[in-house]
Design brief:
Blueprint lengths: L5 E6 L5 H14 L4 E6 L12 H6 L3 E3 L16 H5 L6 E6 L2 H9 L2 H5 L3 E7 L9 H15 L5 E4 L9 H18 L3 E6 L4 H8 L3 E3 L12
């Protein structure tokens, strides 16, 4: 699961890509990799890698987040540490890209550096979200992000959930839809996520790698 040096996570707003990216970084670090995570999301100030910064840094992960001048509503800037990350090849890095085509433009400015490196570009899908609940919408969103980023999606991630109300059936339903897109576009499945249910049983049901998630990203109204 952690073969590539750069793992880029994209997806629609509400897909849960930041939760997936943070958990992926933690698991990658736990597997013995020197790990960094970059918050490329300069669009949405609410679901942020910074929420898990303390947890990430306790595990020795290098956390690079946008610079907010005063508050969450200020326009953030990408920090200069990103440039050094492309030079420090000893790190494996997770890039959490902002939702939709607008967010993908932030990573596009590093397209040349990324394409010269060893990377995977994941597209995270939750088929229970209204903007990605049909095959047509998922396909359209993939093309939109690819166009803005200037790079192709290389793997799909099934993050289908209804928060605490998620059932096996929900995830399997998402798996079936995403497999259809996978077959149509020729983009392979990367992995399926699992939170709050029997993940070993889920792996048997979906037939591919499963990433177990811990809840680390807070909702805006849950923050102090």
């Amino acid at each position: 699961m952690f073969e590539k040096r750069l793992s880029i996570f994209t997806g629609h707003f509400g897909s849960g890509k930041t939760e997936v990216a943070v958990n992926y970084a933690l698991k990658m670090s736990a597997a013995g990799n020197k790990t960094a995570i970059v918050d490329f999301d300069i669009v949405n100030p609410y679901f942020r890698t910074a929420d898990a910064k303390e947890t990430l840094e306790k595990q020795g992960i290098w956390v690079i987040t946008p610079m907010y001048a005063n508050t969450n509503v200020d326009v953030p800037a990408l920090p200069p540490e990103i440039y050094s990350l492309f030079q420090k090849k000893e790190y494996k890095a997770v890039l959490d890209v902002g939702g939709d085509d607008l967010g993908a433009r932030a990573v596009a400015r590093f397209r040349e550096e990324i394409q010269q490196d060893d990377y995977e570009m994941f597209f995270v899908v939750n088929v229970k979200r209204p903007m990605t609940d049909t095959l047509e919408k998922i396909e359209e969103m993939i093309y939109s992000i690819e166009s803005s980023a200037g790079m192709k999606v290389t793997k799909l991630v099934n993050n289908t959930n209804l928060l605490q109300y998620t059932s096996f059936e929900d995830i399997v339903e998402g798996q079936e839809k995403i497999f259809e897109i996978s077959n149509k576009l020729g983009v392979p499945m990367g992995f399926t996520t699992c939170m709050g249910i029997d993940c070993h049983t889920l792996k048997e049901k979906v037939g591919n790698e499963v990433l177990t998630l811990d809840k680390l990203i807070k909702l805006p109204w849950d923050r102090e």
